[in-house]
């Protein structure tokens, strides 16, 4: 069944009441929202582009230090994500949550990675995330199926990595696994290339309201080409690939005031390696 999305008027009303993300439909809705949000984001950059006082600002980016009344909104076909990315460094909520966890929970682990040999891979490389991680663990190699993407060093499919067994010390995968047709195959490939001490740093969109992952059977154009929406059984999928280790849920790890100041959405960061 095709979901019935709210009208643009209703969606704007929901946003004014504080909704983080709404789906929109109706004739011309995408263009209307694009116009509104481009203007809104443009006004934000014009009036607050230089940043404000972190002590009094409503939101703060912990990657670049920008502070202001809100983050910029992300517009995509069918939905609007409010308060999403930093207007200065383009860091999204997942990057801000990751930065906090790397500093507060995984510092010793990252220091250990930095001292070991082995390759370090970043799937679907994003500049902000790359800079954050390279400052802790050294140079990363960008991996993507699209060789035209910026920052790509290895053109490869995550389901078939052209790398030797046990040759990789770190794999970083942020919001990639949901785009892979066969995620079990991709996870098995990651497990294959990891060294015995290697780690996978993984974050994927998921709901905590449902255990079972919802498989769509295709890349859904209306959901940014996602093949699935993960439930809490994502850990079971990792275990099935022979990967195990701790995970950190943003809402459980961060103090409530810090969660709000970073404008996070609730996600879970997995730090897993090959089971002995």
UniProtKB/TrEMBL annotation:
Recorded GO MF terms: S-adenosylmethionine-dependent methyltransferase activity
Protein name: Methyltransferase type 11 domain-containing protein
Alphabetical list of InterPro entries matching this protein: Methyltransf_11, SAM-dependent_MTases_sf
Domain Methyltransferase type: 154-201
Species name: Rohdeia mirabilis
């Amino acid at each position: 069944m095709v979901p019935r999305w709210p009208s643009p008027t209703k969606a704007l009303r929901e946003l004014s009441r504080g909704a983080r993300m709404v789906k929109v439909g109706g004739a011309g809705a995408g263009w209307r929202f694009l116009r509104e949000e481009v203007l809104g984001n443009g006004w934000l950059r014009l009036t607050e582009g230089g940043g404000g006082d972190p002590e009094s600002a409503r939101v703060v980016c912990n990657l670049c230090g920008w502070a202001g009344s809100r983050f910029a909104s992300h517009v995509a076909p069918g939905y609007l994500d409010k308060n999403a990315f930093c207007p200065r460094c383009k860091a999204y909520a997942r990057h801000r949550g990751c930065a906090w966890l790397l500093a507060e929970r995984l510092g010793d682990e990252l220091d250990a990675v930095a001292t070991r040999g082995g390759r370090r891979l970043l799937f679907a490389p994003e500049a902000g995330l790359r800079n954050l991680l390279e400052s802790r663990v050294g140079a990363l190699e960008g991996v993507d199926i699209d060789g035209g993407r910026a920052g790509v060093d290895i053109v490869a499919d995550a389901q078939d990595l052209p790398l030797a067994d046990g040759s990789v010390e770190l794999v970083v995968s942020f919001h990639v696994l949901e785009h892979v047709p066969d995620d079990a195959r991709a996870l098995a490939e990651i497990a294959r290339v990891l060294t015995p001490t290697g780690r996978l740093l993984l974050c994927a969109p998921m709901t905590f309201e449902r255990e079972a992952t919802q498989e769509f059977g295709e890349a859904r154009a209306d959901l940014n080409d996602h093949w699935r929406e993960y439930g809490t059984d994502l850990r079971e999928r990792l275990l099935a690939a022979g990967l195990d280790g701790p995970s950190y849920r943003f809402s459980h790890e961060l103090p409530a005031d810090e969660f709000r100041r970073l404008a996070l959405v609730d996600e879970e960061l997995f730090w897993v390696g090959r089971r002995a």
